[in-house]
Amino acid sequence: xxxxxxxxxxxxxxxxxxxxxxxxxxxxxxxxxxxxxxxxxxxxxxxxxxxxxxxxxxxxxxxxxxxxxxxxxxxxxxxxxxxxxxxxxxxxxxxxxxxxxxxxxxxxxxxxxxxxxxxxxxxxxxxxxxxxxxxxxxxxxxxxxxxxxxxxxxxxxxxxxxxxxxxxxxxxxxxxxxxxxxxxxxxxxxxxxxxxxxxxxxxxxxxxxxxxxxxxxxxxxxxxxxxxxxxxxxxxxxxxxxxxxxxxxxxxxxxxxxxxxxxx
Length: 264
Description:
By secondary structure, the protein is an all-alpha fold. The chain is globular, with a radius of gyration of 20 Å. It has 12 helices and 2 strands; from the N terminus they run ααββαααααααααα.
């Protein structure tokens, strides 16, 4: 793979996406207000659970804010890259323009996954970072290079798992044209990732660790910041993210065998 070629193509994707968004600058202000109100609503909802107790599943409210910050960052990543691109696969196949994707001299999965960038999703990423920094302050967490490295590593693995889940569902579009409901169900499950996994029953924790690995997406990066995550959990998240990424890639290659060209 020619890395320079793909970086150059991706820079063009970013340029065109930002140019389109900046044509309507008022939308950025509206999206900023919407993201702030959404975050305030989420924190308010989280605080309601702590009205009559100091801890839920062994997590205090200030510690749970770390999970909220990480969830906000990951939701921003989803709205910046995954949602604008992977939901478009349906349109490509329905309109027959997917043929033009396949004949381009570039990997089709790369094109499908990164053609569009929604800058408004970056607002959520920034807000999530602010919540995370504030959470570090109120929890008196000493931040060092090792913690930063593990946080970036686990967040990167969380993004890979999120991407793989989205891409696996979107790939089924080749057989089932309407997958919008499936992605909304996934969003609903990921919404649960704002809360500590220890607050759920044992059976649900097993489900969210195996079938839909929400535990790996938000809880483990949060535990890293609190110094509660053992090495085996971090290694397991790396392994799970690699497995999901490989499966999504192989499933894409497999699904392409069943795609019928619009011109055939």
